Amino acid sequence: MKLSLIPVGIVLGLWSALINAVSYDNAFNVNKELIHYNYYKFSHSNSFEVIDSSNIIGYNLLNQFININVTSGDINWLIQDTTEFNQFVIIGSNVYLYSDFSHTINIVELKTGILIRSIEVIQPITKVINFFNKGLLVVQSDGTLHFINDRRQSQIHLDYSIKSEFVYQQLNGFMYIITYNGHLIKLNSNYQIVNQFDLSANKLSQFKDFILITDSNQIYKLVESGETFDVKSISSSFQNVKIISPTYFYNTESNNKVNIYTIKNNKLESVWDNEFKGSEITNVELTPFALSDYLIVTKANGSKQVFDLTDLLIIDDPYSIKEIKVKSDLLSIPGTVDFIISSSDDIPHLITINDALDGAIYDINDGSLVQTIVHSTSQFLPIDASTVSLIVDKPSSKQAINQVNHLLNEGTNIILWNWVKRTYRHLGELGKYFTSFVSSSSTPTGSEDDIGDLEDDFGFVKYVIFYDQISKALLAINSKNGEVEWKSYTKDIPQKLLQINGNIIVVSNDSVLELDPLDGIVLSTKPITGGKEVIKVQAGEEESYIVETEQSFESISSYTQDIYLFKSNEDKIEGHKLIKGSTKSIATWNFIPQQDETIITAIAKDVESSTVSVGIPLANKSILYKYLNPNVIAVVTKSHDQVLKIYLIDGITGNLLSVFEHTNNEIIDFTSINIIIDDNWVIYTYFIKSPRLEQRINVIDLFDSNKSIKKSGNDLISSFTHNSTINSYSKKSFAFPERIINLSSTKSEYGITLKSILVLTESGYLMEIPKYILNSRRIDNRPLVPDDYISDFKVSPYEPIINLNTLAILNHKHKLILNQNEKGTILIKPTHFESTSVLCYLNKFNYYCGLVQPSKSFDTLGHGFERVKLLGTIVALFAVYIVTKPFVSKKRLNDQWLYS
Amino acid sequence: MRLSIYITVLIVQLISFVHGLGFSGKFKDIPDEIDELFKTRNAKVLNGDNYQSKFNVQLYPLNTDKFDSLSSPVYRDYSFEFNGLKVGEYELVVSSYDFFFESDRFRIIIDDYEEIVAIKDSLTSSSLNRTSGVVISPSNPLEIQFRQIKQFYEYSGGTISEMLLSSPLGFIFKNQTYTMLFIVAIGLMIAPTALQYISPELHEQYNPSTLAAEQATKLQQAEKIRRIQQQQQQQQQTIKTQPVPNKADPSNSDVRKRR
């Protein structure tokens, strides 16, 4: 057993050694990887609460419960998928998540978001109350009252059942609850019933400081004497009067006036009023903070006025009310909610903020603006990222284009004069380089910029383009720094994005827009009618698009060569040919699977993927040629008895090249199938329940041992007169420990670099698996012999399990948020270095960009390369040489003498 | 007898239908304090301290062709629970973004007598060892042993200082005094050899073997002289003639010759 594990260990060790992991020194290098988490916006204005200047918590529209740093806009922590909750209460250091009429309460640690406890209640929750910051009082639909906190859950046995309509106050260590039908329950802070009493009051709307206000605006006072209670009528009231204290009340009059009343001779008498000119009052809120009480008045135009009532409540002098004029710069931000918090230096601050996290912080002592908060602009919500997204090279600036054009046009017929000008220009550039080098060394930030500029020249910076549902515009995001490079507003929601001849093609229902990738400016607009989809085609050097209609494909202009296309639906695949000179295609072949089969998906090879290796040299000096037919279409079908089949079809001739059929004892999750076709292989993944629950990766390597594919020059072509059937293949199945959500493969500039398979797993890993690991030619029936090592690249014995190699996880510690419905898209674009490609992942929860180097950085020096140490070593060796030179010459001289 | 068994099974099934069956589990020995690289680098990692939120605990019913699964959150104490289960077989698959465990797949079997048994079902094992099952319940949780923290960054190592520190002599270099003593000792050891190349004359002068050889030569010479003197005295006594020194004696040569 131990012996059998040795080769496995060797293989795993070899594999882990070959993976180009990011070293400790480069960990969390912002120049290497970028992660951005979206929170979009809070569900509504009552779905969030500011705790302090570092924490704002609430539910957002992505069904998450989040804690965001108010000032920086960073997410402190996040709880995914909180669809069953929509309410929360903060109690001490915990937050309780619940929902009306649900059975579950989750208790979460406020600082970290760690779930402490999940509590199931028998009856649905109808109301909850914060009970002295010790726990929750929960009223259930059967009228029972329960106390719940992170350690305890117990029922409070009442003589009466209570419904959700009740009022309560917490005062002097007791809680008084008065039900809708006048039952009073008095609890102590240990949630024990002290007293239960029947009052003659009913239909109460407010209860504070022993003052009761009924729905009919009558004001009463609750008098407690021993174990009995009495309700005394104080006064009749005005509409919408609210309690400030036992002696003061306020209301809003005519939407432009705020009154403060006191009770005199059993009547409410105004002692203070303030008329607000201009905009109407939208909200008046009494906000207690520490020992003070503030009345915050919000007007329709967003401006705020704050009145400090602290002195009024102490000395009973209406003239002591202090008005704080908030110097509002946020007149145009609607829907803000106000919170008073204590700053780090214990100064009360007013935070006024809306659900999109735009707002401001004011010093409440003088109303001065402390900080403006604008976070809505950092939020993006890609629509259908799998189709409406694109990665393109960062376009050259107009200045650079002009310079190149100028250089191209400046040449004359006099060769010597051209040489002089070129030498002059190069000398100028050299001088400029040295000047910039010197200036950048004096400013540390400048050096990084220079590195960035250099990397720009080599295509390390890409633009990720997608449609943002928030701003209703196409956005181009810089893959290196995450900044928005441009926004382009479109009338219609795009259905697809393509890059044709360098420009961005935006396909919507009835039009095709052409955008400049540099600035997003619309270059042209063309209408499309009756189009189902728009497809990019490449005829030689020429790139353009073709519109797929119900029956055929139609192009805007004719081509100089035949174009072959296919369309698919659940029942059949149909091949089409657009004859040169024609603008409408004709159907040439169709493929109808067996009667009980449904087509799940059909994919063709990515035209942008390239490979230079046409075969594998074997130990016997022969070549195992790869089957590199560029026109292969892989079709996945599901039969009535749930059998999975893969058909490989020639996209030009319609020939069935090969069929791979699974057995009917497998129970496959057909929604989990991902398939890619590249180079000479087809890889597909699926989740399976029987014969065993596992995630599988199947690999089919195709070979052309008979050299059956016809060649035209250097290009492989399909021909009706030539049999291109796949006559040699090998296949293997692997199990993977994580469920795979999305699948892709790497691309490089020239196809020299090894291929790697990229898998996005359920846990949020974006992992790179080298193709030589997913090699169907790995030997499983005998020990490896020396010839096997010669006959394949990095060959290893077949092991059915692909282990989770954490060093090959490209997003490292940054977990990607995703779910089954939000698979997102993996975007890859090669840099100008053959070894390196830029990789981005995008969905509505987050986007990630980084670099992938399947064959390690063979043509680049990493950031960790010890330039200083190398130079230091050279200098040290030189110094040693200089120092030892006289000794050496002296020794040589001495060696000339013979000792006798 | 058979009827009574049927009735018992029926009652058990009825109870389980009403109340539902369940079990709990716990991830054991996860360190309380984890030295995270992102903290020392001042990098922001979402839910960096909330390891519990990055667990995935899924229970797949195996008695159905459907792929719906049950999931459980992981609580602060790294526990989880499943309730409302029915009699049948399930596959429990657990994973964490940050940790590896000794076992991450279990077959959960709930029999007709409400007994819940968990059997390790590793991906690498080809069959299920049913005799290795453990009985679990809400009060007797399934314990899943922590193995190691997942490392996402490659520890480059390989530097000379790291090699020295991790070598058997590492204890010397971890202590300043030992290091100084070690360097002095090594210096004394290699000084004669170095001197041989830097200054051969000095080396020759202080080379113990050369000194010993010289001493031996001097003693030999003294012995020879003593013998010659004795011979001369004997000859003077016998034939009364004068002795002549031997110039061909190489031991008496001290002349350098050019090649």
Give an overview of the whole structure.
The complex is a heterodimer of chains A (900) and B (259). Chain A has 900 residues and is mainly beta. Among the domains of chain A are: 395-457, no CATH class; 868-894. In chain A, 12% of the residues lie in helices and 43% in strands. Chain A is built from seven helices and 66 strands. In chain A, the strands form 18 sheets. In chain A, strands 1-65-64-63 form a four-stranded antiparallel beta sheet, with no helix packed on it. In chain A, strands 2-3-4-5 form a four-stranded antiparallel beta sheet, with no helix packed on it. A four-stranded antiparallel beta sheet of chain A has the order 6-7-8-9, with no helix packed on it. The relative contact order of chain A is 0.07. The model of chain A is unreliable at 1-19 and 443-452 (pLDDT under 50). Chain B has 259 residues and is of the alpha+beta class. Chain B folds into two domains: 18-149, Immunoglobulins (Immunoglobulin-like); 165-245, no CATH class. Chain B is built from seven helices and eleven strands. In chain B, the strands form two sheets. In chain B, strands 3-2-5-7-8-9 form a six-stranded antiparallel beta sheet, with no helix packed on it. A four-stranded mixed beta sheet of chain B has the order 4-1-10-6. In chain B, α5 packs across α6. Chain B starts with a helix and ends with a strand. Classes of the chains: A mainly beta (900), B alpha+beta (259). At the A-B interface, β5, β9, β54, β55 and α7 of A face β5 and β11 of B.
